[in-house]
């Protein structure tokens, strides 16, 4: 089942309110310039994870998504749980959305 924008938003919220707020500030602080909205970022990340084939892995569950603001962009780190012990593993961080 492919990832959706809503699933990515929920994953960001599971990491803590500060992560969703980082996306909001990234968008709003750029005014009057236009950066992607938090919803745009969540949608693009769902598409990116689907293209990587991560939605097709029944052995992995998206546990949380961390957002870190950088100079003019954001770094997104998705953390997946796998196996019976629910070992948490982040995938390589992705930086973009300038």
Question: What labels would you give this structure?
Answer:
single chain; 98 residues; alpha+beta; elongated
Give an overview in words:
α1 crosses α2. The model has no long low-confidence stretch (mean pLDDT about 95). The longest helix has 14 residues, at about 40-50. This protein has one domain. A hairpin with a 4-residue loop joins β1 (about 60-70) and β2 (about 75-80). Strands 1, 2, 3 and 4 form a four-stranded antiparallel sheet that branches. It is about 40% helix and about 25% strand. The radius of gyration is 13 Å and the shape is elongated. By secondary structure, it is α+β, with helices and mostly antiparallel strands. It is built from three helices and four strands; from the N terminus they run αααββββ. The protein has helices spanning about 5-15, 15-30, 40-50, and strands at about 60-70, 75-80, 85-90, 95.
- What's the number of extended β-strand segments? 4
Query: Oligomeric form of this entry?
Result: single chain
**What portion of the residues fall into strands of 2 or more residues?**
25-35%
Using only C-alpha atoms, the radius of gyration works out to 13 Å
Overall helicity: 25-40%
- How many DSSP helices? 3
Poorly predicted sequence stretches spanning 5 or more consecutive residues = none
Spatial separation of the terminal alpha carbons: 29 Å
- Major sheet description: 4 strands, antiparallel
Write down the secondary-structure element order. HHHEEEE
Average per-residue pLDDT, rounded, comes to 95
Q: In total, how many domains does the architecture comprise? A: 1
Which shape, going by the Cα principal axes? elongated
Structural class: alpha+beta
